[in-house]
Design a protein that fits this description.
Elements (H helix, E strand, L loop, with lengths): L11 E3 L5 E3 L3 H21 L4 H21 L14 H15 L9 E2 L4 H24 L6 H25 L4 E2 L8
Antiparallel strand pairs: 1-2, 3-4
Helix pairs in contact: 1-2, 1-4, 3-5, 4-5
Length: 184
Amino acid sequence: MKIYTKKGDAGKTSLFGGGIYSKDYIRIEAYGTIDELNANLGYLRDQLLNEHDSNLILRIQNLLFNIGANLATKPGKSPPFPALDPGFTLELESEIDRMDLELAPLQNFILPGGHPVVSWCHVCRTMCRRAERRLVTLATQESVDSGAIIYLNRLSDYLFVLGRNIARQKGVKEVTWQGLEKKQ
């Protein structure tokens, strides 16, 4: 079986359940952004993370694939996976709380940097925020699992705290926003 079909050459694609849609259709943009986040989380997972973090990110990747598959389903058709279980969001909250216990309280805004893995956490965080925005836009037009939007919101928080925690584990000073003087 060939990987290419040439059916998308005219800027169109199909959804699970039928129909041909423009590749810039917000539903396709939403699941494409989740796919992009998933790929970057794979890169993050391949970096120097401990087994606990690596296993959690792998679970997150699988869950994001489920969310993407549901989004890749024609509106009005039954998606292949059930609505997101709130327990997945609670798991992220528990991880955030666990890491926060080991971190100094935030005193400043944090800038990406200090170590490549820390920076990549921030890359993933910003992609997650973009995926969340795409789902919010889609939800203004079509039915979307609200649990997926909540999960993405919490996932971006988790990635922020994960970056802080990795900096702590590696003994790297966090890069804080210093601000610049205003022009007179």
